[in-house]
Amino acid sequence: ALKRWNTAETCSDGEAQSDASTGKAHGAFGKCGESAQNECPDWPPTPASQIKGCLKMMWDEGPGADFNTHGHYINMSSKSYTQVACSFFVKSNGSWWGVQNFK
Fold first, then answer.
1. What does the alpha-carbon distance between residue 51 and residue 32 come to, in Å, rounded to a whole number?
2. Are 21 and 7 a contacting pair, CB within 8 Å?
3. 69 to each of 3, 9, 65, 78, 84, how far by Cα in Å?
4. Predicted confidence (pLDDT) at residue 48 exceeds the cutoff of 80
5. Which residue from 10, 11, 35, 90 has the highest number of Cβ atoms inside 10 Å of its Cβ?
């Protein structure tokens, strides 16, 4: 199980906000010292829809070894990472951007 990476949450919030502002998923990747990142860009209003929809979609990419096809699943299920910081940013139109940073 991944432990909560509390000390990276504020930085991860900034990454989600930056990516939402530029409209570019993973645009701020690496600024928090993370080794991997999953992102839910521009999802419909409510965090519940994002968590149920986006994270389920990522998990459903697996199992598999090809990173281009299964990358989100690989990040989520990897035993190499021990911590995760989860952050969200809400745009003025109500859409949500979510970042999951793995370390």
1. 22
2. no
3. 26, 28, 8, 15, 22
4. no
5. 11
